[in-house]
Amino acid sequence: MTRDDVVAAIRAVLAEQMDNKHLDGFGPQSRLNADLYLDSVLMLNLFLHLELDHGLPAPDEIVAGSDIETVGDLAALLADQAPDRPDATAAGETTEPDVHGEVYHDIKVHCFVSCLCDAVKAAGLDHRPMYFSIWDADFAVSERYQLLYHTPQISHDVFRRWFQRLYGVEIIEWYDHSKPKQANLDKLLDLMAAHRTTDSVMVMLDMFHLPERENKFNQNPFPHYLIVEPTEDPEVWQVRDPDFRWEGPIARDRLLHAVAQPSVAGGYVFDRRAVKRPADADIRDFFRACFIADDNPLLRRVREIVTAHVEGRDGLGVHGLDTALRELPVISIRKWAYEHGFAFFWRALRLPNGEFLQWCDRIEELALGLKGLHFLILRLAQTDDHSDAAKVFATLDRLDALETAIKLRLHAVFLDWCDDQGRPAASSLDNRLAAE
Q: Strand 223-230 and strand 236-241: pairing?
């Protein structure tokens, strides 16, 4: 197919199979996320229909990475042509960060923790220990075997408790779940009226109701924490969204509308002046409290979900897998947090940058492998082909072994760090893993 043929096929899939409502002005320059509202899951569905309906299989690296901006970029790649994009090296970018440099690539994979870490970085302190809690952070699976990244039962208390112990800052919950929504909106208005320059006011809102804000998931609903501040104009608030690396003014009423949605409920406040440097003993204890050495919960639960649907348990079927694992991308990006774990210990021990980059490659393989796994699951949901099921389970086995290897190396370097600090790990689990 020529590039123009692929563009036409993309439009046909969006219009006929995906019922996309944003095709006015469609063309090669249409942006897949910002103009066509394709989140990571819809992108996988687009790849799938292009393969099954138009004979255009996407290479694995495109499916896994899919960091493609426009329709024209995607068409060029599928037509085996070079996309019209600037060369990264020529633009001065580097693909080999130095973990020991002054500036190191930052990772944003959890909105609540990113809001806390925003204050730590502003104080010039290392925020990476907070990410020890992220790669295996809580999620839920419903009784109907649906993966959920957010439910009212998922608590942020572990982050609050450890943030206070590590950095000395008390996180106060201003949102009162026992009161009606309007009472909490009034409380938020009071916080804005009394706002001090060192206050961080966190609020949960539904990002789906802020369509002017581009995001990579376009979930509906999309619960998300960010930081709000008043401006000189009482009708406009300043927003800082540390997780999506954005800040700017938004009309107050637009924000209040997103906070008022029944899909969201939550808010915290803390004073950034209290931030202090964490003690080594507290960092050690935090790592031990968070680290799950003998299990990879996300992969285990995904396997259970796929198995339940393949076996037809409780009336389920493989066609329901697309809905059951709809939120997998939101959870799987948390695996990038392993880089922060490695970076913290690597910097402290002055370990070779080359090996650090090798482990970064394996972490990338895990994170992108989860995206490839999701594509295989979506294909299974479409085809009901047992050979596709076998590929899904084989991929789960491979990713499970990969994550286990990452954890083993991370735990080993943690033990080295404990020895370097003169603080024994003092755990039977640590000793057993060290012996292995």
A: antiparallel
Task: Please spell the DSSP secondary structure of 332-371, one letter per residue.
Answer: HGGGGGHHHHHHHHHHHHT--HHHHHHHHHHHHHHHHHHH
- Each residue's pLDDT tens digit, 343-359: 999 999 999 999 999 99
Interatomic CA distance for residues 252 and 185, integer angstroms: 11
Tokens representing residue 403 in the block: 């994550």
Q: Give the mean model confidence (pLDDT) for residues 134-152.
A: 94
Q: Domain locations in the chain? A: 3-78, 111-131+138-274, 294-435
Amino acid found at 396: L
Confidence of residue 275 (pLDDT cuts 50, 70, 90): very high
Tell me if 58 sits within 8 A of 50, measured CB to CB: yes
- Copy the structure tokens of residue 373: 């796994």
Residue 100 has pLDDT above 90, yes or no: no
Residues 171, 213: Cα–Cα separation, whole Å: 27
| Dihedral sign computed on CA atoms, order 201, 206, 212, 216 | positive
CATH of region 111-131+138-274: 3.90.70
Nearest 5°: the CA angle 379, 364, 38 is 45
Determine contact, residues 202/156, Cβ cutoff 8 Å: no
The radius of gyration of the chain from alpha carbons, rounded to an integer in Å, stands at: 23
Inform me whether the pLDDT recorded for 82 exceeds 80: no
Q: What integer is the mean pLDDT of 391-414? A: 98
pTM over 0.90: no
How many residues in total does the chain contain?
Answer: 436
Helix extents (H) in 194-279 = 252-259
Burial class (CB in 10 A: 0-12, 13-18, 19+), 182: exposed
For the segment(s) 3-78, the CATH number from 1.10.1200.10, 2.50.20.10, 3.40.50.2000, 1.10.3720.10 is 1.10.1200.10
Side-chain-side CA neighbours of 160 within 13 Å: the count stands at: 12
